[in-house]
């Protein structure tokens, strides 16, 4: 079962900052191709192991596989070159991003360990080719995927969290509401507490 909330961060330094706040699952999404990818993934994974947490590696499935990470998260474009059977053989769990019906069907055919839906709300993180999904789509997706965990992402704030869970999401992935907060650690602790209260 996935943690009810998990942060998405861009560096091992952020992983180190947020793990002490009660985080049990954290996604490392490195967008700088010039970053020392293996070093970042290895460091983040080691930090998670020591903290009893799990690491989700975005995109870089080969490095995640080689470094023995827990999860890989892939977007639809990343699926094209990914060796999903190799991940399965190694016991690496798989999460897949979805934005529309076609993408959901493709994801479910691969039997992922969780499905992500987004953006739920408008997001500042990146320019999205998809309109905000809204809360009603969460319920629709959850009916489609059944017992498989559904992760909501995109424009989520602590104030919106209860509505996301009420709509049917099993987990909420958060980016800007934490990393752009004046006190990220305090905000992360508030998210963890809210997730535990909703468990």
What fraction of the residues are assigned to beta strands by DSSP? 15-25%
Poorly predicted spans:
none
- Lateral arrangement of strands in the main beta sheet: 1-2-3-4-5-6-7-8
Largest beta-sheet characterization: 8 strands, parallel, barrel
Number of E strands = 8
CATH fold topology: TIM Barrel
CATH superfamily: Aldolase class I
Which second-level CATH architecture applies? Alpha-Beta Barrel
User: Whole-number average pLDDT?
Assistant: 94
- Total helices: the number is 10
Report the span from N to C terminus.
11 Å
Which range best describes the helical content: under 10%, 10-25%, 25-40%, 40-55%, 55-70% or over 70%? 40-55%
The radius of gyration computed from the alpha-carbon positions, rounded to a whole number of angstroms, is 16 Å
What is the SS-derived class? alpha/beta
- The run of helices and strands is EHEHEHEHHEHEHEHEHH
**Number of individual domains:** 1
Structure report:
It contains ten helices and eight strands. It is of the alpha/beta class and 199 residues long. The chain has one domain: TIM Barrel (Alpha-Beta Barrel). Helix 3 (61-66) links the parallel strand 3 (54-58) and strand 4. Helix 1 (12-18) packs parallel to helix 2. The chain starts with a strand and ends with a helix.
What's the layout of helices and strands?
Blueprint: E1 5-9, H1 12-18, E2 25-28, H2 37-51, E3 54-58, H3 61-66, E4 71-74, H4 76-79, H5 84-89, E5 93-98, H6 101-109, E6 114-117, H7 135-145, E7 150-153, H8 161-167, E8 171-174, H9 176-179, H10 184-197
Parallel strand pairs: 1-2, 1-8, 2-3, 3-4, 4-5, 5-6, 6-7, 7-8
Helix pairs in contact: 1-2
């Amino acid at each position: 079962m996935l943690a009810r909330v998990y942060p998405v961060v861009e560096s091992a330094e952020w992983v180190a900052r947020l793990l002490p706040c009660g985080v049990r699952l954290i996604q490392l999404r490195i967008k700088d191709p010039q970053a020392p990818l293996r070093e970042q993934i290895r460091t983040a994974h080691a930090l998670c192991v020591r903290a009893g947490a799990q690491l989700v590696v975005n995109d870089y499935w080969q490095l995640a596989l080689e470094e023995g990470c827990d999860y890989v998260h892939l977007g639809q474009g990343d699926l094209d070159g990914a060796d999903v059977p190799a991940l399965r053989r190694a016991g690496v769990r798989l999460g897949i991003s979805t934005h529309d019906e076609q993408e959901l069907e493709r994801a479910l055919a691969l039997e992922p360990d969780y499905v992500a839906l987004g953006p739920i709300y408008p997001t500042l993180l990146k320019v999205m080719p998809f309109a905000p999904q809204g809360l009603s789509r969460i319920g629709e997706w959850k009916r489609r995927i059944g017992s498989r965990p559904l992760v909501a992402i995109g424009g989520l704030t602590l104030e919106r969290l209860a509505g996301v869970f009420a709509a049917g999401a099993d987990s909420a992935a958060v980016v800007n509401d934490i990393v752009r907060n004046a006190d990220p650690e305090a905000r992360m602790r508030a998210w963890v507490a809210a997730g535990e209260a909703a468990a």
